[in-house]
């Protein structure tokens, strides 16, 4: 499996070839992008208000995937995304305006005055909501800009708002205590990623941070008695 690769082709813009390895999924030709050049980081245009309506509609369960307000994505996909983004503290997808935590003054969402929009939910948009053309009911996770240094007292719980269930298999891994060994084994499969990220020593520190957040997520699920579903 290929996670990261360095690119040297002369046909690529300089920003893709001047730095370190890039996620290969960025160039997957099956990823569906909007034709709008100002909004090509999405497969579908989606506001936060519509996102909230979709969660309540339980698309593919109570409401047809292509009936309003649904956009063809299964309800269970949003819980997978929220779980992933919470563990890595990825905000630039469900909360690009940094409404759910205290960003640093140097953060992009502060410098670009995104946070000023948090008072009006109607102005909030989702980004990096992408699917494959061959399977538009499932989300593809790219641009996963996590926050490994985010302190535990400033975690973004807004990412979990409206999520009413979680995938049983992923939660069982968090409960098992085996996350570190499983992740190390998985990440080792791509030698370039492994070397660029500093190998086991550097990755263990990140994984322990993820494990701590996982325990907080488990407590969140217990406190709210949220059900688990079988993720096929």
TrEMBL record:
Compartmental location: Endomembrane system; Golgi apparatus
Coiled-coil zones: none
One cellular component term from this protein's GO annotations in UniProt: Golgi apparatus
Pfam families named among the record's database cross-references: FAM198
Keywords: Golgi apparatus, Membrane
UniProt keyword Membrane, yes or no: yes
Keyword Membrane: yes
Entry similarity comment: Belongs to the GASK family.
Protein name: Golgi associated kinase 1A
